Amino acid sequence: MKKKTLFFILLFSIILNTIIFKAFQGNSKFATYFNNSTIFIIMLIGISLMIYFFKHDNSPQFAPANLKNEKNEKRNEKSDESRIGFKDVAGLEEVKDELGEIIDFLKSPDKYRAMGAKIPKGILLHGPPGTGKTLLARAIAGETNAKFIPASGSEFVEKYVGVGAKRVRTLFEKARKETPSVIFIDEIDAIGAKRTLESNNEKDQTLNQLLIELDGFNNEQTVIIIGATNRIDMLDEALIRPGRFDRNIFIGNPDIKSREEIFKVHIKNKPISPKINVNELAKRTHGMSGAHISNIANEAAIFAVRDNKKIIDFDDFSRAIEKVIGGIERKNFSIIEKEKRRVSFHEAGHALMGKILNTDLISKISIIPRSQALGYVMYTPDEERFLITKDELHSKIKVILGGRAAEEAIFGNISTGAKDDLKKANQIAFQMVCEYGMSDLQNRFYESNLIHRCYDLIDKEINKIIDICYKDSLVKVKSNIDLLSKIADVLYHKETLTGEELNTLIKKFDGSHNLSII
Ligand code: ATP
To answer: How far apart are CA 422 and CA 70, in angstroms?
Structure first.
């Protein structure tokens, strides 16, 4: 409801109430209930209601003329506080090469103008969170001595019609005044999302203004606009067409070499034990982003301080990695004996299946609760792999379901402990059916709109994959039940086993039972 209408309804009802009660005041029966103070309380409730509705009205409105763009102003004040360059961005060599041309343009624009060359105006950096998109944008500004003007897409999302658009205008005016400059819009999907029938007037106006500003640049202005997003698929076509954000660069999670480089950047100014092998740290952080690595370096330093150490050693890094992967260790969490036994068998089930099927290397098994998990198995995946076969995906699912299979084999029933495992296993099975064409539906790829329509068919295939894998896990776990019990027993007493300890244990067992699974 519009504010004005609401205001008048409430005002009218208050006045009406007052008149009615005043009129009834002559009536002695009524006067007992409605005296002046009652009327005053009713008016107070009315006014409170008015204030409440004013504060909680979410419908788009027109902005007060004097509304200030305070958020942007504050951000821009901070923007140039520290200059960083490409030396601070580890890895990403091919991306830095790609951006070299833009840097050259900002440094010597005349060279390009003389040739009549147009340089890309907009660069879109996209990829998972924490991979260094913001860092790169800052480094571009740093390398070229350009003014860095950061903004976040969400700052332009306003309920007042026209405010977002005005903020976009102000941002670009500032950039034009302070050339050479780099505008960086993080989370650009917040303003650049695809327009639909449901999108509101305010959002459309903001996006339109952004498109106008992008078109408004000419070759004389040395302004580069960098947008960053984790969801390029959400962006409006108009935004990514040639002439606007026409260079899009994917920034993925770093590979082992890059992780090593990132570690070096983040331990540079810390007292580190000379025994630390950065390559080993990189190996143990497979799949992590630069932000994770920077966090690990910081957590390791905090662990060292906590233990009154003078230098940060490998143990501090190990603890930091585990904390980042699994969350905080819950040392004082008490678990009843029979649950501890079940968790031991569950984790032993994963480890056993991992060894039987020879999937990723196991680096640690633990039944010390962390975050919400009661236990976990840590793996060190093989770095050199880029392709996974159908059989290998089946094996992955079987290892994931190994925990539940072990519970069923030992206790004859299953527990809620496999919730996360089921989620992971089903996700892989979903991808096998809908993305990799690895089900009985053959070589099909299902777009999201098709998924809804073919849901029953897809669900049946997912079910088939999960079912086959689980049955196989159960057979394998049951046929190695003595080894499973041995692993679970040692785990129960020691609570944590390293990858090597697990191997030794299996080798000893293998000696007497002729198993060859490692
Ligand atoms: P988001 O998508 O969540 O906004 P992002 O991709 O913009 O994330 P950044 O903010 O640039 O990520 O990176 C976060 C932090 O991670 C950086 O401040 C830096 O400490 C570290 N980092 C990420 N990538 C690198 C890298 N290549 N070299 C050095 N440090 C890195």
So the answer is: 47
